[in-house]
């Protein structure tokens, strides 16, 4: 079996497990359950289509991510907007969505069209998601009440976001150059990307499943 096919298959399994965990424990995920289930469910669908096109149809998959990325960032921004308590963070997250959508549209039309990797847009989204995650941590740690971090779903999810999107930011910064000049090294970076995806959705799954502990501890 092609090693990339194997790595992608493992990734899909972990992603699907994360989606199932969001459904299984949705009653304990406060008001975020529909957003989390939608995010992981649509991500699984997009990645499954990419899996088929890449390994069985030998067709380009880049256009999928040009459409997926605006959806992904919008949903993540909405999740954090619901989670934080500070008004200025809520406003910043609200404003960031139309600004990112406009920038993404410009990049997809004039800079990196849908038949190429939208690396600049991915770097922009990664930067914004890292900021959103750090803002959530700041909001969480400055609240008056004591919060049990290990039983807080968004603590695990935000930790995963910071690790994954930090890696994605730097990977995308090198990817276009390496695909032109050092294809062998580019393939190794893809392996790193799969590893980051494993970590991201494993932490998402932990976050979804720990929500029940948070509810029990508050009773």
Topology:
Blueprint: H1 3-24, H2 33-55, H3 62-83, H4 87-111, H5 119-141, H6 153-181, H7 183-217
Entry keywords:
219 residues, mainly alpha, globular, disordered C terminus
Care to describe what's here?
Keywords: Membrane, Transmembrane, Transmembrane helix. The chain crosses the membrane at residues 6-24, 31-52, 64-80, 92-111, 117-141, 153-178, 198-214. It is globular, with a radius of gyration of 18 Å. It has helices at residues 3-24, 33-55, 62-83, 87-111, 119-141, 153-181, 183-217. The chain is mainly alpha-helical and 219 residues long. It is built from 7 helices and no strands. It is 82% helix and 0% strand. Mean pLDDT is 90; it is low at 214-219. The protein has one domain (3-214). The N and C termini lie far apart (50 Å).
Radius of gyration: 18 Å
Task: Give the number of DSSP strands.
Answer: 0
Q: What is the CA–CA distance across the termini?
A: 50 Å
By helix and strand content, what is the structural category? mainly alpha
Number of domains: 1
Detail the poorly predicted runs: 214-219
Q: Calculate the mean pLDDT score and round it.
A: 90
How much helicity do the residues have?
over 70%
Residue fraction in strands: under 5%
Major sheet summary line: none
Number of H/I helices: 7
